[in-house]
Amino acid sequence: MEIYHGTNSVAASAIAMKVDVNLGGGELGQGFYAGESIALAAAWSQGRFNKDAKVVKVELPDSDFVKLRIKQVGHFGYLRQLWRKLKRRRTTKTFKFGTDVVVAPFATLSFSYQYKFESSNAETVLNTSATRTVL
Predict the structure, then answer these.
(1) Among 63, 99, 101, 103, which residue's CB has the most CB atoms within a 10 Å radius?
(2) What is the mean pLDDT of the chain?
């Protein structure tokens, strides 16, 4: 599988060396986030980091991904409610679902999916099986 993470040049260089699922936080809580769309990753990073925008391409063997414990959150309405709750409680940097990977639409976009890698097991897979390339 190929997924993309939008960020800045310093973080992209660090991610290319090693993924740390405890550093990131977003709309679904703590973890390393990547999405299916290179266009969304690039647009997000450009909007946030302007000329310092970078995208990290993560190529993970399908055979390793399917061994991870996966929680799918497919209901867009539930996802938006959860995101708002986490923002209110200020837990977007700490909340975890207790699984390896969460697969869900973005809380603000229903047409593309994101992957939140949140466990040490997922981190190990990303650091041993995946190829990470800074674009």
Answers:
(1) 101
(2) 93
